[in-house]
User: What shape does this take?
Amino acid sequence: MSVTHPVDTCSMAGAWRLYPGRAMSLKPKADAELRLRRGGAWVTLGETDHGIPGASGDRFLQDGDTLVVPAGACLVMEALDAREGADPVLFDWTDRAVEAPAMGRFSREVVMPSRDLVLALGQAALALSRVLRGLLGYSEFLVAGRGRVLTPMESMRS
Assistant: This one.
């Protein structure tokens, strides 16, 4: 007798649920991290393109456990508690970002504020030019005093 479970696939980072009696297949395009928040899971990590020794095989993960999944690996996971009505396994799936080098004191205290100042001055210059353009659009109202400049024919009627 063979037992088959429906298999879901997920490819987006975020918080996920894996319900009892279901399996989930994950295949990251970049290195990723699987972190269990609640429950236990049986995880099978297939062969990777990197050929890392010991990277493939079965693992049993519990609350708080983390597993780094290399790019191109095929991971299949299933809830350990397969009873009907059991709580789902909660886990986070995140991309492992390449960490940026730490910012030095000079960059933090001089370079960053300088960039902010240049940005602020540019926005102030843009706002000033928009105000001047708006005022120039009303120049005919400012000259006539009554809303518009009168033509010579109109000025003779008054």
The two ends are 106 Å apart (CA to CA).
